[in-house]
């Protein structure tokens, strides 16, 4: 029987197709290897047996296409970082707090526009009510609790604090930095208050609630919110900081939650990343709700700036454009740990980066990785770094005679922290001399009755014919806080 002509050609075409396919696959694999080699080079400084480092996961089209550890999880025990190493992630945890609130809202347990005093009656009744929405978008005006702790003479990473401790501190504040909804100002304290609300509404701590409603449904088996510093955690990294020519262990006694305290791995975080694509949580329209941008009272977006970027704040996430591409994510930083996550939804690409060294900048590294991964898909060129501007000569500070300085000398008390500052004249300058004063610097005169002290500015107030009677902090974060001069 004669074989038809077409049937004789077919086996040859199949063979040619297989050869071409193998060639293309080999070429693609080669290109991917080169790309990942370029990415590895970014971490060469830390990918050593005597350095802390990073864990990285690169996600494309719903899969982790590259994951790797660089450097050491524990210098003491010579344990290398792996993709399953557990890191503290700092403020990346805020998005989980916001998600818990959205789940409770879906269950009808609360409304985003509820006055927080409905759940936190200890908080003062200010001129305008603070809502849950204000806390989420950092538009509440609540003072920064770490700055308050520092004013009270604490080393903020070393003090033992629970959520109730921080709420009690915030509840003593008689004023706000600004009227709720008036502006955006990042507030860790606002997210701590959200954790307290979650517990009072659900009857479970935020750690318990997140485990039941987020981590378990998503299969995040190595993710948890730390409420007890004494818990033993398998595969946990130690946080470090580089000081001069050596590394030091960075630790904390803090046990507050809501603004951070999430421990996870880059492998686990992938499941959270993918929930923005395929939602598995009991929260319909999850992605749309999580990415809803906050609004100020005047209708403008709740925004913050960083370098050449403008970030619009959503629910524990920021939205922005990177080289013309839509992106969202968040960073984290706390006691020797640094982390960064960002997703490019249109390109179906995400970068998850976690570090156990305070001196590493994961945001900058994430941008460099993005430049490699998406180099053919950007719609805008990479911006050149801004030119350093010539510094203007600083104006000569006003000179104050010693006898005039004596007007300011005295003890100043604030009962919102509470603390008493002891101000004395020393060699022609003013110093707060009490133990654990917030800053070692002297007060530097800027204008009449206005001084700088560390990063703060303070303004002394006077009563007619009675001299100085106190001072107010006029810096962002602690604005309006008043210290009254103690009468002798």
Brief summary:
The protein has about 500 residues and is of the alpha+beta class. The chain contains eleven helices and 23 strands.
Write up what this structure looks like.
There is one protein chain. By secondary structure, the protein is an alpha+beta fold. The chain has two domains: 66-373, DD-peptidase/beta-lactamase superfamily (Beta-lactamase, 3-Layer(aba) Sandwich); 402-485, Beta Barrel (Lipocalin). The protein is built from eleven helices and 23 strands. It has helices at residues 5-41, 94-106, 132-136, 145-151, 163-171, 188-202, 206-218, 266-275, 286-290, 362-373, 402-405, and strands at 54-60, 63-70, 72-74, 79-80, 87-88, 224-225, 240-243, 246-249, 262-264, 303-306, 309-313, 318-322, 325-334, 337-344, 349-355, 410-414, 419-426, 429-432, 444-447, 450-453, 456-463, 467-473, 482-485. The strands form five sheets. An eight-stranded antiparallel β-sheet has the order 2-1-15-14-13-12-11-10, sandwiched between helices. It has an eight-stranded antiparallel β-sheet with strand order 18-17-16-23-22-21-20-19, with no helix packed on it. It has a three-stranded antiparallel β-sheet with strand order 5-9-6. β21 and β22 (467-473) form a beta hairpin. The relative contact order is 0.13. Mean pLDDT is 91; it is low at 1-6 and 16-25.
